[in-house]
Specification:
six-stranded antiparallel barrel; 423 residues; three-stranded antiparallel β-sheet; single chain; 8 helices; alpha+beta
Length: 423
């Protein structure tokens, strides 16, 4: 018989005994823990339902002419009738020339200002501050990944630096500045004449809010067609999107009002009234609660009802919204969230009666908070009841108020105000 087997068996038994002892101690310690606490935190409970649907706006699609397209308006930017929204170049050279023209125009404007600049120290300090602010704005946009205005911000930084150089840094006389200004004007005139023959300007036919996104819903779903929309038709539009239009350079949203058509459970739709108000919580680009008007309730197909909402706020933030699942909020309750196990009903000293008779014992609703090793009673009132929690509000004044971050006792015996809790 080999001598190794008894040794291995003995070692295994030793390990098994250690594990059993450890687990036994852990269970014993847990069962003998007299007090347990949970941290209180601010909380908002909502009576709400999800609302899946489409954002609908009055839009005019703008076709893209043949050539090299350069859109000159930012997403969500307001544009007046006749104002430029894009440039179309016949050749890549024309596109390069346009960039040079913009640089020349900027430099001419700065030179004209430099010629009339007094050159005092206060103006120099102001220019330095302008450069710093322009750089800070550009850096902030980059860190937030907001690229809609970066082209203008880059030009602003270059403009400020050039202005500083022309006014104080290059030591040019007024005559030299004027001569340089005249030369740049001549160069700009020649280049503009050449570029005009190969560049087409696209102007806004009507005033509106510009958007680069043309998702195909512009003609399939309009504010006018919402009058005849059904739950099945809306679901079909959601399930079968047309896709982006590659032949369009963008669109103009031509109405101040935008709509949200959504399919809701019948029971939720019955709680709404046409002409009334409703709060919807949107995500994505909008990312906020919007109070909207209930334009239409119905028709109903099975357990689904079509509801149309509208708003005249935040139009410039809805340009990229299409298919959305928003949260329709009927009611909200804000306060402090506590577990149901933490709430306690205690008897308080009765207030003395005026006629000298014994007053009935008073009762207070509250929790015991653990403060510096002692339990302290915090009176509260219930705002809302959840499945396993309450949303409560502190009652009274002074230091004995329940606040977010407090630790409240959920399990414990013999609790009293001021009781020393042994660790």
């Amino acid at each position: 018989m080999k001598q190794g087997k008894p040794l291995i068996t003995f070692v295994i038994l030793i390990f098994a005994c250690v594990i059993v002892i450890y687990m036994g101690y852990y269970i014993f310690d847990a069962m003998n823990e007299t007090y347990q606490t949970v941290q209180v935190y601010a909380y908002t409970a909502n009576d709400s339902v999800p609302a899946e649907g489409l954002v609908v706006r009055q839009a005019r699609v703008i076709a893209a002419p043949a050539g090299i397209l350069e859109v000159t308006r930012a997403e969500g930017e307001k544009v007046g009738a006749g104002q430029q929204i894009a440039l179309v170049y016949q050749t890549s050279q024309a596109q390069s020339d346009q960039a040079v023209i913009e640089e020349l125009q900027m430099e001419i404007d700065l030179l004209e200002e430099a010629v009339s600049q007094s050159g005092d120290l206060e103006s120099s300090a102001r220019l330095d501050e302008d450069i710093l602010q322009a750089v800070v704005a550009l850096r902030a946009s980059y860190s937030q990944r907001d690229y809609t205005k970066q082209r203008e911000q880059v030009l602003e930084v270059k403009s400020r630096v050039l202005k500083r150089g022309y006014t104080y840094g290059e030591g040019l006389t007024s005559e030299e500045l004027s001569a340089r200004l005249q030369a740049l004007r001549g160069e700009l005139t020649v280049l503009s004449r050449q570029s005009a023959r190969a560049t087409t300007r696209v102007n806004a036919p009507v005033p509106g809010v510009f958007s680069n996104l043309v998702d195909g819903y512009e003609s399939r779903l309009t504010p006018e067609s919402l009058k005849d929309l059904t739950p099945a038709a809306l679901q079909d539009l959601i399930d079968n999107p047309a896709g982006e239009d590659s032949e369009a350079l963008g669109k103009l949203l031509t109405s101040e009002t935008w709509h949200f058509a959504a399919n809701l459970p019948k029971s939720a739709a019955e709680r709404l009234k046409e002409g009334g108000k409703a709060t919807l919580r949107f995500s994505g680009e909008l990312n906020r609660d919007v109070k909207m008007t209930v334009d239409r309730v119905g028709p109903t197909e099975g357990d689904t009802t079509l509801v149309v909402f509208s708003s005249n706020r935040y139009l410039t933030l809805t340009t990229l919204l299409g298919h959305q699942t928003a949260e329709l909020i009927f009611e909200s309750w804000s306060g402090l969230r506590i577990p149901k196990e933490a709430l306690r009903l205690v008897e308080a000293a009765p207030a003395p009666s005026g006629d000298g008779s014994a007053a009935a014992p008073a009762q207070k609703l509250g929790v015991y908070a653990l403060v510096n090793g002692r339990s302290e009673f915090r009176e509260v009132e219930i705002v809302h009841e959840g499945s396993d929690y309450y949303v409560v509000r502190s009652v009274g004044t002074g230091r004995k108020l329940l606040r977010a971050g407090d630790a409240v006792i959920t399990h414990g015996t013999g609790l009293a105000d001021g009781l020393l809790i042994e660790g």
